[in-house]
Fold:
Amino acid sequence: MNPERNKYFIEAENCQRTETGSFANGDVCMSRRTDDGRTLLVLTHGRGSGIQANVTASVISSMIVSYAQHNAPIGQAAQSVLNTFGGRGSQTDASFAVADIHPDGTVAVAEYETPPFLLFRQGTPDEEEDIPGEQLTITAGNGRKHTIRLSRFNARPEDRILFFTKGVIRSGTGTQRLPDGWTRAGLAATVAGILKQTPDISARELSTAVINRAEANDLFVPKSDLSCLAVYFRQPRRLLLCSGPPFNETNDRKLAERVKEWSGTTVICGGTTAAIVARELRREISVNLRRDISGLPPTSSMPGVSLITEGVLTLARVKSLLEQAVSSELTGQGTDFELARILLGHDRIDFMVGTRINPLHQDPALPVELELRRNVIKEIARLLEIKFLKETRIEYL
Structure:
């Protein structure tokens, strides 16, 4: 079952730098999409630095995500975390910020010992008093009291939220230019300037710009771990991917009409599928005779369609690329990389999958790992949703 689609597309990207001399970053960012369409974002900072801090932050992030996925109140999740990682004396083992974004645009934020998040509307920081909030006091098992900041607001188109660790606003501390550090106000002013110059900057580019500036504040020798999570609410970029001929030929026209009426980018994977669309819409297919560097069959083009590729083999290659990718940026060459970049460059992907069996795929001489089209596409959709927070739908013909 496909999750409920969000009112806006939520683009969330995290950028990090590791403290100079440390083997591992003590900050961990996790993002998950729930079955009911909510987007969960967690940024956790483990006390200290290195592997121990990273392990602590990873466990805490996993705990919070697990509670949130089961719709548990944030107080219950925080109670469990603080009972386990409340630390001793005046110090705690970690700080964290959690954002729970609902499909209707409602955003709930919980923060523990982190700098308050920044909300930008129309390119300028929104005043804190305009964001409804409250304090939640929790008594951990060791008797120590902890305070959680809770905020709730409704997102608007082009809103941006910035979460960041203390290392970011403390960057530059002790330098002649920033004796007291960058500060939250200094960060807000810098980001406002970036948004004024580049209103449509992506979440990845914005988080990277913030971390680059923080690193420069420390004279390119970070004195602590640096992390910034940027969230961007915008209108989604839509993609239609068609692959496979319909089971019944009576649906050939339906497939073609969907391509004709689609408002967004269209891709066709499969020569037979492309031939059906070309026949029904009376359009010509032009074959690219240049050999593809990937070794896959050459691509084709058709008016109204951005890319036409071979079918199952290409999709299987794309699935492999998505499994191996560590970010949404792919730099390789070839049809498989091109199609993967198109998928990652869009937010809502609709798959129209024909269910007629291609006799060629039953040839025992073909590689054993060759999967049926529908299974490959289901796995691609799963990766896009879980790993890259895309929204997908699959329709079978």
About this structure: The first strand starts at residue 9 and ends at 17. Residues 312 and 337 are 15 Å apart (CA to CA). The chain is about 30% helix and 25% strand.
